[in-house]
Amino acid sequence: MSTEGQDAARLAELRQKFGREPLPPREGEAEQSPRDAQPRFRGLESGHRACQGCGEALAARLVMECAGPDVMIANATGCLEVFTTAWPQSAWRVPWVHSLFENAAAVASGMEAAMKAKGRNTKVLAFGGDGGTYDIGFQALSGMLERYHNVLYVCFDNEAYMNTGIQRSSSTPHAATTTTSPAGKERMGKRHLKKDLLSIIAAHHIPFAASASVAYAADLQRKVRYAMGVDGPTFLVVHSPCPLGWRHASAMTIEVARRAVECGLFPLVEIERGAVTNVMPIRDVRPVTDYLSLQGRFAHLMKDADSRAAEERAHLQALADYNIEVFGLRGDSPDAADTTGTAVVGRSGRPAGRI
Amino acid sequence: MTVLTRGAYAGPGTSLDFKTGNWRSTEKPAHIHAKAPCHAACPAGEDQQAWFAKLQEGHAEDAWRELVSANPLPAITGRVCPHPCETACNRVAVEGALAIHNVERWLGDEAMRRNWAYPVTEPAEDAPDVAIVGAGPGGVSAAYHCLRHGLRATLYETAPEAGGLLRSAIPRTRLPRETIDAELARVLGLPGITLHTRARLGRDVTIDELKRKHAAVLLAPGCQEGKEWSVDGAVPADLHEGLHLLKEFMDHGAVPEAKNVIVHGGGNTAMDLCRIMKRSGAETVTLITASVLPGPDADPSDVINVVPRELEEALEEGVEVIEHATINRLIMKGSQVCGAEIQSLRKLPGQDGRSRRVGFEGTERVINVDMVIPCIGERVDPEGLNGLVDHGYLRPSDRFGRLAEERVLALGDARGDRGTVADAIGDGRLAVSAVAAQLAGESDPPADARGEMPSGGLNLGYYEGISRAVAPKLAVADRTFDKEIEGDIGRAAVMAEAERCMACGNCLACDNCWTFCPDNAVIKTEELAVDGSHYLFDMDFCKGCGICAHECPTGFIQMLPEEAGG
Amino acid sequence: MIEYRIHGRGGQGSVAAAYLLAAAAFHAGQMCQAFPAFGAERRGAPVTAFVRTDEHPIRLRSQVREPHFLIVQDGTLLQDAGITSGLRPGGGMIVNTTRTSEDISERFGHRALTVRATEFAVEEIGRPIPNTALLAAFLSATGLFPIDSLAAALRERFSGEVLEGNLRLVERAAGTVERETWKEPADA
Amino acid sequence: MLEALEGSQAIARAVALCRPDVVAAYPITPQTHIVEALSRLVAQGDMKTEFVSVESEFSAASVVLGAAAAGTRAYTATASQGVLLMAEVLFNIAGLRVPLVMTVANRAVSAPLSIWNDHSDSMAVRDSGWIQLHCADNQEAVDTTIQAFRITQETELPVMVCMDGFVLTHTFEPIDLPTQDAIDGWLPPLEFSRKLDPGDPKSLGTLVSPDFFAEVRHSHHAAMTKALSVIGEVDEAWSALTGRSCGGLLEVSGDPAARIGILAMGSTCGTIQTGMEHAAGEVGSARLIKLRAFRPFPADALRAACEGLDHLIVIDRAISPGLGGVVGTEVAATLADVPGAPRIHNHALGLGGRDIPETIYADLMATVTDPDSPAFSVFDADMEKLDPEDR
């Protein structure tokens, strides 16, 4: 491990002022590297080839931390699959199989049937992007849910086909540009709406379906832990910004995701047996432009001179308002589990607001 | 040679062979300790953020020890300091500054209640001995810091007891005697400090003599002489100079009677006198000050230099303030003053770039008074100072207080540009650090060059509004000349207040970087992170995306340019 | 090798009849083969099934083009004159109908037997499925395999009341035709 | 013990004897009876398996892929459009080198819609990397199904057991099903070395760069080539157990001295044989070659089987439009470098369920002596039924 950039004199000085004496290695752990000693499960290891600031890599890492080692994964074709398993290397520390773009849910069904046949409890996870979930893999997913397989399906939603270079999917938000929904004289980006997948999933009356966001890691991980404990099909869609496809700075991944939630365009909800049982209230609702303006894919909506831009902005604001109204997202009073309360940090990772 | 596996499977975690660290092209993250603004603003040199961190960990004694590494008198400063730290506090951007002084005071009091030991040891018998003239807060601070540097200290005090202006110029309503006695006793009782009272410079000891006997001489005599005050040559026969009046009050508990009083000045002495006069029965007490009251539009450099809560309390008690004003002339009836003409003024930049105060014609008005108390400052009594006094003050050549004479340094009010207890305490610390370095044959300790972390450098999304602790106060009607007005906030409020500290520019150990790194390139470690954080960057895998820096609540992580070829 | 063709309508158990006949042959120690003329027909549409029986293993997989026997499950199918297409001159046809054997024989120029199979079936098993009765009468008349072998085949397929009804049906239908009247091939 | 059974029921019973852990299938004519029979066995408790009733063939293949990757014995069955809907997964299964058995109830591929038998479906995925074994009758189908479970374990290559839809699946005939004890002793438990196992986590289905893709494909090809001997050995082992052989890679019968050979796959073989028995006196006898292993293609065995032939009639039950018969073309290529190789007469027949009568033997034999006989024809196509422009 390199610690470049921290020169010795500076270290000595800082140690004098702030430092603690280095602790001796723990008994019996002398051989362990700091990486191996991390107090969390590294199901998705470093060295994967995701872009800088990849929201999906982060989301998958967060999910794996909670899912733990006794799982196996069926992974749909997509960025996550490609950037984690360039042979002969793999970033996974759990049994993992990639078959095709559209069959992750079905492969997971088979794995789960195998575990049942063998009388084992190893939980099966299925991972897919929005393309593999909202679109081409949707049928297999519906079948898996209907057959009530004990599988946690996680959709890493980055709102377009990023693996092949940013083509629109049914999850792409209205008015966003992609290479197949470009803005031009005749068009203001994608003409259609983002598919309301969660409602369709909910209609399967499965025990648990929820949306989560990389910006709210604690909330995301709580949902994963809950789903892991359910004996039956569960579904999680995780809003995972793509700096490349959304055209924002790589450092802004969390900020963008946070604003998507705070403006109401990506509501965080939990649905059990078809009924909404929990939502994350928004303490301070932001205008959608706070979210849109950070992203190049909405740049055409930011042109003041274009009346169509104003109309589309108003449309997106109306969609956000709709979510806020339908799901009752506006927080009545500060709450430890609202958008602000959940994010609050404290010293030593103490769970101030972390559930 | 890599050999194909059947079906091209790969082993677990083998991606660690693929070092994505070489994907960084422009920037890399680094831990950048910046000064929290409280620390940057503290004249005593306290690092409030550092001791709040200890409190956040639940360790009050550690917090106190961190605190007294700069300031040995927290029970006193927690009561009297105008706390520029709170003015600077970034928390203002969320919902309001931390109640730093209340917490400091509690820590000081708690240390005395629990008899926590100062983190110093007795210097060697033959350790160099530093002479300190004046046992006010600056002198006591200097003596204490001598111990921290392994030096012995000998204090020479004119008065019968140590304390200086803490005793002579601060009303008991702000600083009870018991607090002064107890905290000073604890410091002065530390082995290695010797106190000679009733030892007057020029009469009982001389600088030359001290220089012979001691490794260095620190001059902390304070300002004992009132400045001459006149308005267009008019001086009332019964002029009551502020500091003298205050001392008189402290000694005898009474002030001359007056009906309508003007206090002229802009410091704590003026403020104390306003309140004393009001409480003594004056019908109107008006403070005329060239400065401005604190407010959203006030230029910070122009704000009246008083403890803000004192001002608040004074206004509560009925003291009137005319800001941006000065006295143009006195209206006399014989040698008695019966009125004063005041005029509005502003601080404006002059042609040479330096600001000056400009009076505005046509804003003159007259108010009727029967007493004018000028509180425009005091000067050093030059006796015994070997002619080191220059235009009323000891004017050192550097921040350590060095004077023209070798091994002689000045600190505290005597330097003329100070004015607070905290300034004096900070001077004591700095002067001793220079002396110690010099004795060890080292160059002067470097100034802390760290930048200050502004609120814009924080990610405020990770903090939520928590209301500030409110200290109990005597009701206006219950306020006397003896009883301390502001009370203790108590342990629970202290701990709650600590939660509000945002750790500006320092590691909060919140895990955000560890949580949000998409590349698992932040290593959480207690063993290896020696820079005050809990984390290391694994540069083998960091792609330089910058998420950790953006999501660092405190601004502790910043992106630095990737060195060329590095 | 003897080849059979069964005509019926979807829902009348024609394929089942083929399988039963083959199974009866199997129980009688013969090799057998039965299969439908695979179609996508729905209930009521005319359907065909084929059976081969032999003492030797049967490898031929083509449809039966020149059957020795026709088994017609529904008299209305006789409206199609082509129904006897390929029927060997020495063969015969057994038909579920209320008409007389002579009528049929006369019309098609082949020897014929008629059985009121639907009537029997409704009475014995409560459903208008003529196949068991037809097969029983057919086996009784031809003596190709013992009636017991049909009963054995039925026992593999059914149980309980349905089986009992079918066994009664076998007995009753077999009794309505002259035993082994078709023992020898017809004079062509 | 011999029982008279419908082919589909027999296959279901044979599958049950192999105790698969996971079965997933989607019904499609003419495979439906197999799925229904398996469902009944499960419902009656006669078969302990996780039966996954999927929503499509695509998922059926995916489910058994997942189950196999997780280290369990898995089985599926399909036909026609189902094979094509599975196509992507079939390539994937083979590439992953997981053990699997699938029955294909061979049926034509739409359009136009045809539910009847030919080999278009399995031919369409002949390059998927699966072993493809063709069955001439239901006994072979049963025997081959059980053998397939052992072949797939030994080769870590998936096995497709092809049986003619309707002609076999719906035909009721005497079949000898082995006992459970016999199979339990003959078919070892599945131990898949690369199974998904939290104790030894592997990543399957990686991205392989051009630097190694050629090696991946070579190793697959090499494995298929090695499977030729495994198929033969397993059939011999089966013969030792049951006294029956399916003919290994291919089986030669008929007149060994004949100068004319007829090669066919599947149920056509029996009709040809019967036709010869009846017509040999008139048109002469032939050497009959029943090709059982289509993938891997048994080139050496085929060359040996064709020794001494002047003419070889190759029957294709599918057509590659614009080329002709697939089997015929491959046989021709295999014999191309053999000195004195027979002339190939390639005919597609029985497409889309067209009945193949026993007279086909004589008709085919007649083409050998016809100097105008084309190298390839759709043999039973009636030109009269076509518009002259489309002939």
Could you walk me through the main structural features you see in this protein, from its secondary elements to its overall organization?
- The complex is a heterotetramer of chains A (355), B (566), C (188) and D (391).
- Chain B is of the alpha/beta class and 566 residues long.
- Chain B has helices at residues 37-41, 48-56, 60-68, 74-80, 84-88, 100-114, 137-148, 165-168, 177-188, 207-213, 242-252, 268-279, 308-317, 421-439, 490-499, 512-516, 547-551; strands at residues 27-31, 129-133, 152-156, 193-196, 216-219, 225-226, 260-265, 284-288, 320-322, 325-333, 336-349, 355-359, 365-368, 371-375, 378-379, 389-390, 393-394, 408-410, 522-524, 535-537, 557-561.
- Chain B folds into 3 domains: 15-33 and 506-561, Alpha-Beta Plaits, CATH 3.30.70; 37-226 and 377-501, FAD/NAD(P)-binding domain; 228-376, FAD/NAD(P)-binding domain.
- Chain B is built from 17 helices and 21 strands.
- Chain B has a 5-stranded parallel sheet with strand order 4-3-2-5-18, sandwiched between helices.
- In chain B, helix 11 (242-252) packs across helix 12.
- The radius of gyration of chain B is 28 Å and the shape is globular.
- Helices cover 37% and strands 20% of the residues of chain C.
- In chain C, helix 3 packs antiparallel against helix 6 (160-174) and helix 5 (147-157) packs antiparallel against helix 6.
- The two termini of chain C are 19 Å apart.
- Chain D is an alpha/beta fold and 391 residues long.
- Chain D folds into 2 domains: 2-242, 3-Layer(aba) Sandwich (Rossmann fold); 251-390, Rossmann fold, CATH 3.40.50.920.
- Chain D has a 7-stranded mixed sheet with strand order 3-2-4-5-7-6-13, sandwiched between helices.
- In chain D, strand 4, helix 4 and strand 5 form a beta-alpha-beta unit.
- Chains in contact: A-B, A-D, B-D, C-D.
User: Number of domains in the coordinates of chain B?
Assistant: 3
Got a strand count of chain C? 6
CATH class of chain C: Alpha Beta
Interface with most residues = A-B, 72 and 73 residues
Using only C-alpha atoms, the radius of gyration of chain C works out to: 15 Å
* Helical run tally of chain C: 6
Supply the number of structural domains of chain C.
Answer: 1
- Helix/strand-derived class of chain C? alpha/beta
Poorly predicted spans of chain B: none
Oligomer: heterotetramer
Let me know the average pLDDT of chain C: 92
* Full CATH superfamily name of chain C: Pyruvate-ferredoxin oxidoreductase, PFOR, domain III
Strand order of the largest sheet of chain C: 2-3-1-4-5-6
| General form of chain B | globular
Largest sheet of chain C: 6 strands, mixed
Percent helix range of chain C: 25-40%
Mean pLDDT value of chain B: 90
Number of helices of chain B: 17
Question: Which short descriptors sum up this protein?
Answer:
heterotetramer; C: 188 residues; alpha/beta; Pyruvate-ferredoxin Oxidoreductase, domain 3; globular; D: 391 residues; Rossmann fold; 2 domains; six-stranded mixed sheet; 12 helices
